[in-house]
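pipeline stage [seq->struct] | target=CRDL1 protein | organism=Drymodes brunneopygia | residues=129
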Amino acid sequence: EDVPSQTFDNKDYFCGKETFPVYESIFTEEGETIRKIAIEIEKPPQIEIHVWTIRKGILHHFYVEKLSKREFEELPYFKLITRTTLSQWKIFSEGEAQISQMCESRVCRTELEDLVKVLYLEKSEKGRC
């Protein structure tokens, strides 16, 4: 049987933890892929965008930028991909720092894909929180 999701004050919760929307944008031009993963944080209200520049499968450049929600709403191409908890986002950020060093000299397509999967929350079975 499906258990209806809990909502308190219009926020989504996962096993009692607040979740935050995660967005993605992928743009390819002249053999270079720019992939952006963004999370909307409420305190302080801002969008944190992690930008990866990938050339021939190698991560060439990685940086983080922070924008206001208004600035973010004006950006094209972002789509909502999931909601995640702050603890999962922390795992993502730490993994990203390791990968950015590892992948400066070798192809890392699968590592980057696996890292994004960390943000997706598994649907918990009843009582497994």
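stage status: PASS
auto-comment: The chain has one domain: 19-119. The helical segments are 69-73, 86-102, 109-117.
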